[in-house]
Amino acid sequence: MEIYSTLTRSKEDFVTINDNRVNLFVCGPTVYDDAHIGHGRTYISFDTIKRYLEYKGYAVFYIQNVTDIDDKIINRSKESGIPSDELARKFEKRYREDMAKLNVNGVNLFARATDHMPEIIDQIQRLIDKGFAYETEDGVYFEIDTFDEFGKLSNRNVEELESHREIAETTKKNHQDFALWKKREGVDEPTWPSPWGDGRPGWHIEDTAITEYYFGEQYDVHGGGLDLIFPHHEAEITQMEAVSGKSPMVRYWLHTGFLNVNGEKMSKSLHNFITIRELLESYEPDTFRFFVLSTHYRSPIDFSKDSLHQSERSLERIRKFYEQLDVEVGDETYECDALAPHMKEFFDSMDDDFNTPKAIAAIFGLINDTKNELDDLSGEEKMAIKAFLDDASHILGVSFESEEVNAGSDDLLNLISEVRSELRANKQYDLSDKIRDNLQSLGYEIND
RNA sequence: GGCAAGUUUACCGAGUGGCUAGGUGUGUGGCUGCAGACCAUAAUACGGGGGUUCAAGUCCCUCACUUGCCUCCA
Q1: Topology of domain A15-133+143-154+205-261, CATH
Q2: Protein-contacted bases of chain B (C-beta within 7 A)
Q3: Spatial CB neighbours of A403, under 8 Å, sequence gap ≥ 6
Q4: Does the first or last residue of chain A, that is N or C, have fewer Cβ atoms within 10 Å of its Cβ?
Q5: Phi-psi category of residue A91: left, alpha or beta, with phi > 0 → left and psi -120 to 50 → alpha
Q6: Cα–Cα dist A191/A69, whole Å
Q7: Which nucleotide is closest to A33, CA to C1'?
Q8: The predicted structure's pLDDT at residue A187
Q9: Omega before A201 cis (within 30°)?
Q10: Contact assessment for residue A141 and residue A177, using Cβ atoms and an 8 Å cutoff
Q11: Where are the domains of chain A?
């Protein structure tokens, strides 16, 4: 299996640190508002990656941090009058509800920043002790001049960055030095005691404190959105490798591409901000999930109603095919010659940096190859196909079961259907068509 | 200005030098009273210009354009 890592900008063989164990960390949300469909894209991608690793036999431990203390939360708290901890809990809860609806359920541990203050403070103290960080009157900062490799993930160097220096902030030695600890500024903000006085942690330190605590100094995979490469992930590498003296902190850096809306970046000022909740008012979660997986996780993806509709139709085709496999699958393994090449393509594609669009194409290849010969296949062959589709469905996290609208189960619908049949027999098509149209607008489909 | 990712047929979207990606949409035919669904079938490609090669969407150079990051951001 090969995985593309941002650090080396190339695909590399996937080799874990400890046998079949994979320690996976993904940057979670800052919980100050509802999650949007861009978050959805990212977390669906990593959920699918985790599902696939588990399918391959790895024991994956997936941690996501929850940033529940941050400027944005404090500001929102002041605006709304809701205490910041209450606000953070509320949106964390809503975030997890949204994820559950999208069938994103692979996270083993949600680690809140505020639950890891001792680890955060301890890591900062060690950075100071080792001479990588210094205290000023308003906080504790990492001194990037002490760490030569700052910039290796994002391909930047300090000199270039300095050309963008704005008005110097007085307490920092260097403009690029980033905060590890921010000292209290006012009375109405949440603080924690520390050796440097009351205050709160900087944004980057929570992640390395959490991963060091649960995974140790080095681990396998770190993921997040493309926009986190700089400065966030760069700072993480800097902190962790400085404190541990070991490199690399992470073997594989995975970054998801952005989700744009109608070709534009999603932003509040453009009024094209779509939350997961809003989306799910109009679309099935599986449709969105299938839409996301129809593009490679690293590529940008353009969200539009038209694209979502295409995904809806594509998924329908798979479901119709699946419905025709009128067999029950047991625990045995089954053989089917017609399936083999498509199954191979599916798994080869997934092995190639989780190429879900290609894997999905393999499913369609299977459908096109076998849809007309299903009656000629043996029960065992059909079971093989069904077992494969069940696996694929589970890996992708998208159900291939049709939404059951069973006319036969409902007496009233049966009656209407019978009346319509009589009308058709009598060639009263205007009336029968009216019934059909009305039933369709109610969400019922008629197959004559 | 620096860094990064892109530019594939109507649209979405894979493509690891030579063999049909796939989907959606559209056309045509079949089935239908009609429509849908379904079945069959067809068409439309690799941003421009150079180069390497027996052979390039795929490698190299160059130009153009798009997007993102460089400040919080999934």
Answers
A1: Rossmann fold (3.40.50)
A2: 1-6, 11-16, 21-25, 32-40, 67-74
A3: A284
A4: C
A5: alpha
A6: 9
A7: B73
A8: 78
A9: no
A10: yes
A11: 15-133+143-154+205-261, 315-403, 407-441
Look up residue A429 and give its two tokens. Answer: 């098509």
Residue A92 identity (one-letter amino acid): E
Residue A5 (CA) to nucleotide B72 (C1'), in angstroms, measures 25
Give me the CATH topology for the region A315-403. Answer: Four Helix Bundle (Hemerythrin (Met), subunit A) (1.20.120)
- The pLDDT tens digits for A269-293 are 667 789 999 999 989 999 999 999 9
Pick from A232, A235, A248, A215: which is nearest to A133 by CA?
A235
Asked if strand B contacts A314 at the CB level, meaning under 7 A, the answer is: yes
Encode pLDDT of A178-230 as tens digits. Answer: 999 999 887 788 999 999 999 999 999 999 999 999 999 999 999 999 889 98
Q: How far apart are CA A108 and CA A163, in angstroms?
A: 42
Q: Which of A39, A62, A25, A49 is nearest to A397 (CA)?
A: A49
Q: Is the CB of A264 under 7 A from strand B?
A: yes
